[in-house]
Amino acid sequence: MTILIINNYRDEKSLYKIEEIKKALLDLGISKVKVWSYYEVSQQLPQDIQAIILSGSESHLNEPKTREIYRSEIEFVKKSTSQFLEYALDTN
Fold first, then answer.
1. Against a cut of 0.70, is the pTM above it?
2. Which residues touch 1 (CB under 8 Å, ≥6 apart)?
3. 45 within 8 A of 75, measured Cβ to Cβ
């Protein structure tokens, strides 16, 4: 199984969160994990992707400028027939 993580963080200080998600998936036995940044999202999903995780973000989609930055990802999610997985990081 290959899972795609879409990294929505714009601040490099938050990249450790993506690494935590990857590690958790690997610990669960998911052997293939790909990561795209929000600006890399295209309408063409690689054939080997079985599920997608959207990371959190420090951005707020209620702001018009922010929605424009994530526009391609928003459209991708709306049109996608892929499974989306939810995650929660332990913040303790």
1. yes
2. 30, 31, 32, 50, 51
3. no
